[in-house]
UniProtKB/TrEMBL annotation:
<feature type="compositionally biased region" description="Polar residues">
    <location>
        <begin position="1"/>
        <end position="24"/>
    </location>
</feature>
<feature type="region of interest" description="Disordered">
    <location>
        <begin position="1"/>
        <end position="47"/>
    </location>
</feature>
<feature type="compositionally biased region" description="Basic and acidic residues">
    <location>
        <begin position="31"/>
        <end position="41"/>
    </location>
</feature>
<protein>
    <submittedName>
        <fullName>Uncharacterized protein</fullName>
    </submittedName>
</protein>
Amino acid sequence: MRISAVSSTLTNQVGSVTSQTPGQPKNMIHTPEKMQLHDTKQASSPH
């Protein structure tokens, strides 16, 4: 259930970014990549 909650949260965040930048497909492509990298760094951190 946690995974689906995270998935819906990511989908909502990406959707809001997409709606904010309708004319900039590059941002739409790079935003999820940056989010994944950020999440990976947090998961790898000792905290």
